């Protein structure tokens, strides 16, 4: 069966520091991968998605970037965090674009 | 107009009640409809997945899609305290997923 791992679960970072969140999927190959941010009362905001290694689509221009160095690895990064980057970040995968997405347990990021 | 509208609640019901959760959507191209359950501080978990109009039942859960009125529902029978969570609807077409903001449900023992 397929599993998705996301870490860390909680992260507290100072303003201006860099960020790296990692997500890996097991039990499948060539999945679609997604990064979302979830804010209270505002639902899930799609940040990036990838249909293959090195292929990244950005949905929202912002202070973040994503990379997919391996088939089942998806990384969310920032060079300099802003206060507004605080939130709950979720990684998800699906087998194809119209198949259900499956989520990791998220990273709660607090910027001080 | 938002792609998906979902009443945020909160909704509070006694144990054993029938719960009805609803979403409306605007895009008639949506073909697939999903419901996710999200416990506090966890990622959303796929609960139901339906294609086009009609009903789908899985244990105590029934998903209903009415494409003519662009209305999707999730019914929970014999609700349990463990059903306390936020429920998100997610219609989809092709590569495009649209998540509702979620309805918070509390089932009181």
Describe this protein with a few key phrases.
heterodimer; A: about 110 residues; mainly beta; 7-stranded mixed beta sheet; B: about 110 residues; 6-stranded mixed beta sheet; 5-stranded antiparallel beta sheet; 11 strands
Brief rundown of the structure:
The complex is a heterodimer of chains A (112) and B (109). With 112 residues, chain A is mostly beta strands.
Main beta sheet of chain B, described?
A: 6 strands, mixed
Evaluate the radius of gyration of chain A.
13 Å
Q: Give helix and strand order of chain A, one letter per element, not per position.
A: EEEEEEEEEEE
The largest interface is: A-B, 18 and 23 residues
Low-confidence stretches of chain A: none
Rounded mean pLDDT score of chain B? 93
Helix content of chain B: under 10%
Overall body shape of chain B: globular
Number of helices of chain B: 0
The number of helical segments of chain A is 0
Overall pLDDT confidence of chain A: 93
Distance N to C terminus of chain B: 38 Å
Shape field of chain A:
globular
For the largest beta-sheet of chain A, the strand count, sense and barrel status come to: 7 strands, mixed
